[in-house]
Amino acid sequence: MTDAASTGTTFQPRVFSGIQPSGGLTLGNYLGAMRRFVDWQDKGLNDGFETIFCMVDLHAITVWQDPEALRRQTRELAAGYIASGLDPAKAILFNQSQVHEHTQLAWIFNCIARMGWMQRMTQWKDKAGKNQQNASLGLFAYPSLMAADILVYHATHVPVGEDQKQHIELTRDIAIKFNNDYGVDFFPVTEPVIEGAATRVMSLRDGSKKMSKSDPSDMARINMTDDADAIAQKIRKARTDPEALPSEAEGLDGRAEARNLVNIYAALADQTVDQVLADVGGKQFSEFKPMLAELAVAKLSPISTEMARLMEAPDEIDAILRNGAERARAIAAPVLKKTYDIVGMIR
Ligand code: TYM
After folding, report:
1. Residue 246 domain-assigned?
2. Which residues contact 130 (CB under 8 A, 6 or more apart)?
3. Phi and psi torsions of 157, nearest 5°
């Protein structure tokens, strides 16, 4: 249960998260998000709460997307969700632009959030770069739409990677300010759920940078669509240091690249870092890298094969998304209606 901002209304648990269909799903997206969505889906099924996972195409267009590519990438992301283990019979899977309540609530939140809050967002600063005047207004308002994604379902838990923490904190600030401004206990103060060994998967070429689809070097990342040879080659060429692996986690301090490969191994093997190091401590990278490559191929190949199979039936993907959107709207519409009432709009 999560408390509302002021007087402690309790909200039933509900999980929401999303990924941008901006092309090139990486191992970071898989370990930091998708695989954990599957755990939440199963927990939701056991404990009787809803889990909702979205392809956030409206966020993707805050930077230029070719229309045909966007359509393909959205289907590819849906295929990635399903191939990773999300099941439309167990969780709600849908595409953001098909549920208009997101943008309608986002407008209300644009009037709640302050310019200063948005200006502090590190993702805005990174993506807009030096030429902020030329960035889209949508890129600036991005976190407000993200807050709407979450709060239009009264979601209480949002599993994400470390890089999204600041956006979830802003979502909490928006919920609190809305509740205070209107004197209600309407929106829950959502918890970011950032857990596991792979909340921040780093570049294979530079252990101080996040693994990202926008890195200019393809060798820096593992893509969900890479074949076995590409995965093995990228791991073989991953940057490391000359020392052997330590037997305990403290031995990874100051060794960003070594820590990253061990974290990836732990996440793929569903083990803790300590368990991995108990096995591989003392080994050289020349011995550890083939083990990691074998594990990565074993885990990722079935997913990429299944994604390719699903992509051959785009109509089936579209039907799953339409159905998911209907189910999502059934939850979102009453929340938006009530928000309009609170704000003072005539219906
Ligand atoms: P996006 O599309 O950049 O990334 C999707 C998810 O993948 C995680 N992730 C990583 N995790 C670990 N290591 C990495 N190297 C790595 N790279 C990406 C991200 O943390 C994220 O969880 N703003 C969001 C999308 C969004 C959203 C939402 C998320 C829109 N509305 C509502 C949650 C709830 C984004 O750009 O994620």
Report:
1. yes
2. none
3. -130, 135
The residue behind tokens 């040879």 is 229
Nearest atom in ligand 1 to 213's CA: 17
In a domain, 111, yes or no: yes
Could you tell me the CATH number of the domain that includes residue 294? 1.10.240.10
Catalytic residue among 43, 90, 127, 177: 127
The verdict on 72 and 132 lying in the same domain is yes
196: alpha, beta or left? (left if phi > 0; alpha if psi -120 to 50):
left
Output b/e per residue, 7-32; b: 16+ Cβ within 10 A: eebebebbbbbbbbbbbbbbbbbbbb
Are residues 60 and 188 part of one domain?
A: yes
The pLDDT tens digits for 155-179 are 999 999 999 999 999 999 999 999 9
Closest Cα to residue 289, out of 237, 252, 228? 237
CB 149 within 8 A of CB 190: no
Q: Which residues contact 1 (CB under 8 A, 6 or more apart)?
A: 10, 11, 12, 13, 156
Same domain, 62 and 148: yes
Three-state DSSP class for 72? helix
Q: pLDDT tens across 241-292, in order? A: 999 999 999 999 999 999 999 999 999 999 999 999 999 999 999 999 999 9
Do 95 and 65 lie in one domain? The reply is yes
Whether residues 138 and 270 fall in one domain: no
Same domain, 42 and 191: yes
Would 46 be classed as within a structural domain?
yes
**6 inside domain:** no
Neighbours of 96 (CB within 10 A): 24
Q: What is the pTM of this model?
A: 0.96
Shortest-distance Cα residue to atom 18 of ligand 1: 29
Cβ–ligand 1 distance for 172 under 6 Å, the answer no
> With contact defined as beta carbons under 8 Å apart, do 15 and 159 qualify?
yes
Which tokens is 214 given?
């926008």
The reply to whether ligand 1 has any atom less than 6 angstroms from the CB of 51 is: no
Q: Which helix (H) or strand (E) holds 319?
A: helix 314-343
Structural domain for 240, as ranges = 218-309
Domain count for the chain: 2
